[in-house]
TrEMBL record, chains A, B:
Reaction(s) catalysed by this chain's protein: L-kynurenine + NADPH + O2 + H(+) = 3-hydroxy-L-kynurenine + NADP(+) + H2O
Family, as annotated: Belongs to the aromatic-ring hydroxylase family. KMO subfamily.
PANTHER family listed in its UniProt record: KYNURENINE 3-MONOOXYGENASE
EC number: 1.14.13.9
Domain FAD-binding: 7-354
Top class in the EC scheme: oxidoreductase
Name assigned to this protein: Kynurenine 3-monooxygenase
UniProt keyword NADP present: yes
Cofactor entry: FAD
Keyword Oxidoreductase recorded: yes
Alphabetically ordered keywords of this record: FAD, Flavoprotein, Monooxygenase, NADP, Oxidoreductase, Pyridine nucleotide biosynthesis
Pathway assignment: Cofactor biosynthesis; NAD(+) biosynthesis; quinolinate from L-kynurenine: step 1/3
Pfam family, one: FAD_binding_3
Amino acid sequence: MQTPKKIAIVGSGLVGTLLAIYLKKLGHTVHVYDRSPDIRKINFSGRSINLVLSDRGIKALKDVGLEDEVLGIGIPVEKRAIHVGVDTVNEQFYGKDGEVIYSLSRGLLNKKMVDLAEQAGVDFYFEQKVWDVDLNTATISIGETERGEWFTKDYDITFGADGAFSRIRHRMQRQSMFNYSQEFLNIGYKELNIPANPDGKHKLNKNALHIWPRGNFMLMALANPNGSFTCTLFMPHDGENSFEELKTKEQLVEFFAKHFPDTKEVIPNLVEDFFKNPTSYLVTMKCFPWTFSDKVALIGDACHAIVPFYGHGMNAGFEDITVLNNMIEKYGDDWANLLNDYENSRKPNTDAIAELSYRNFMEMSSKTADEKFLLQKKIEKWFSDKHPDKWMPLYSRVTFSLQPYSEALAIGDFQNKIMEEILKIENIENKWNSEEVENMIIQLLNSK
Amino acid sequence: MQTPKKIAIVGSGLVGTLLAIYLKKLGHTVHVYDRSPDIRKINFSGRSINLVLSDRGIKALKDVGLEDEVLGIGIPVEKRAIHVGVDTVNEQFYGKDGEVIYSLSRGLLNKKMVDLAEQAGVDFYFEQKVWDVDLNTATISIGETERGEWFTKDYDITFGADGAFSRIRHRMQRQSMFNYSQEFLNIGYKELNIPANPDGKHKLNKNALHIWPRGNFMLMALANPNGSFTCTLFMPHDGENSFEELKTKEQLVEFFAKHFPDTKEVIPNLVEDFFKNPTSYLVTMKCFPWTFSDKVALIGDACHAIVPFYGHGMNAGFEDITVLNNMIEKYGDDWANLLNDYENSRKPNTDAIAELSYRNFMEMSSKTADEKFLLQKKIEKWFSDKHPDKWMPLYSRVTFSLQPYSEALAIGDFQNKIMEEILKIENIENKWNSEEVENMIIQLLNSK
């Protein structure tokens, strides 16, 4: 058991609220600050991608007894539905029978998490802008504007769960020996919407993640409980097939008619939503260290913001909390060593999911429409079903297992090299499930 | 000819002052701001590595008529003197006969550059802290402290020449789509000193860069005009053979007696200097973009801070000015396209010198004590002397030519692959200058 501390958490997002619940249940006093209003009191929409919850995130919720509460507002998703042409939809199951991920509306989930944290006894301070933290004392500075008056609040420990543009990290970044990088993709995204049918039912299969892969751009859709889908259009900011090219209503309608003709019926408010909703940016942010002595620590997007293409932003952030909780069990009151072990053990794994997420844009936007890629997935699934002890596909390692991300990435790369060899086999299209192929895979696996 | 503008330059270092001279000579009004006092009025010492000036830097000085002024305070350096043991000093010439680089004291040179800029009509504002710039208007904000009162000054264009921790870049970094990275080496450095002999002469050969390579740490020395040498000790911050291990006078003296016994006579103030001078950090910083419309631009360390192991920090910064000046000749008053072309054409080259500089720590600290490496250098020099049209060693391309850094890096990598093959030849030690080796190099060159 830990000695109770007075802890500030900056950020009332998904990671901030779940961390607050963990720390409160350990007996600490927990104050959560957010510069925005209480999400339960505002209309939250227009700039979010639906979230995907999978095993790592579920584990962190389950360990603190919140699994059922959260899965109750999620929709199970068992496959990709790949809209390759007007009438052609290919399906690709994510895992084995019964293995699903959950589609969650960010707004809905965040409201639920604030409720749950409040019920657990966490205190929230909304519309309180934290601009600075003293790394030696964990004291935070709060004020209306960056250049205006600030007042201070003292804490024993301050956590920065304040996202990709974290102010807590901003302070840490001014130290010597602080490594930092931010890299923007030339891909932006915009939220669109598929409303429910008049009877409240979903217009498309709600248990699939729908993708319209079109090379350097794509549309995707994930279901909400109210019968609607949240859609996200990903495309370059400028250049060919880009947001820059879609300046007028006519250009937009023509573009969708050409590339996504089958969405005309299901996205009735295309023009209104497109020009009303902002175009958002995608950034990969890495830094190190994440902590300062026993006083200040970063968690979630504040120390490892990733692009959304593996659906692991929230899962990775929640897994940070699992790792931190393991360290609390291991070190008790020794917060300095606890935080040190947390950042060192976690860093290689968040670097790995950053890499996997970055690579997955090409997989989703272009490879899902590629025959060779689909054949590879088919062979992997067939071999894995026959030899589950010998082969777990990369997606399953990342999403349906708790294997550290860095190990999943390394094994995935090895498996990919094997599949490259297999796909070179002459006439592989017709003998992909033959004994010859099976034996060759086994041989290549043993040659490791 | 350009229309005269009112231009602010933030930073009165080497790049800021040279840029000011260029812009003043073009007819602009130029105001240079610096948060520090006038370097001519203070005692500048204790935390600098001596500078090395070579062809790229000389070209930028020459084009504005300052070559002689600057070379007058420099000392020609023609070779590395590699102190491998107490009595063994290996020599390695940098280039062909007459090819030299120049050792310059940073303080001395910076004072001279401020003098020269003032003579050219540039106005200096010292002890004026610029905290912010408005990217849309180029207006700068100045004040005593970051959180105190600020006043503003209007300009047509503002240049950030304010070094690795640039405030101008700090503002640009808050934009979307701004890529940025800072990576610290776990190598620190400390200034030491070899005083002149009583007769004012140098204690070591002044026309050599002296290195004591010791694996993961090294000492180096570069001559000053007053008979002294500025020495720099590079070593890890922590771990084996590190600054952390040298906490007491006894530890320090014993360490130097063990690893640098031949320096005992020439560094009399070791203990005093070591504990008086700070341990400094080494960072590689990259970012993009460097400019904002026709209003704000970064230059020198402010947009590409590199580690000092190739001796190209100042040369790369001065070459930025050459490139900018070429763009001024090309675009005239079209500052938006001028700055755009400047950043796009320059960026791959500053990335390349960052990479070359990073690699060169291992070359200096460890490879210079390696027989195989010295043999490779000997073969390259021999072949290059015989076939100057076919082979220019990488160091010469970087230092004694104006070839873009990115091309030099690419060709250097190709040459290195060839030398790897050559060094595999059996008994190469004894036939390194044979016809067989000569023909093999020619053959490998043609196989490109």
